[in-house]
Amino acid sequence: MDWITLLRSLQSDFIKRLTSGCLLHCETEGQYSELTIISGERLKALREFCWQMAEKYKRVLPVRDVFISYLKGKLGEEVVKERLADFITEVDYEKRFGGDGNIDFTLTSDPSIGIEVKSRHGRIDRVRWSISSEEVEKNAVVVCILIQEDVSEAQSEYHLFLAGFLPTRYD
Question: Domain ranges in the chain?
Fold first, then answer.
């Protein structure tokens, strides 16, 4: 059995467990978990950043659209940040205010190794992730996060799913 067949089998198992509600859930930072819950002060801080971005780009795009787009992305980044903890760089909102250049994190031990996070909202049987060739070139792995709740200012917590990852280098 090659590794692609193994990954497809694991992905099929994950989808079955996601639809049945039997996911692995660990609240300890730095530990593996398929489910991460974000709420409270952490969600408040993410929203504040997203409103800043919406204000910055209000002349170009509708404010609500910018807010929602940034919130989806930041929720996904928070999942990866919590799961990989000290293995990756900290999300620095001030430093990344102008954009991340298709690299969301780098490894603490080797800053030349990038990690891209792709967050998508929808049902597991309909949602799709697209990855550009530039993202593949700049990152060693692309992590896919699934958001099933509506993304809005009113949502009090999010149950985010680590839906999978794509290694971009095979050496």
Answer: 24-167
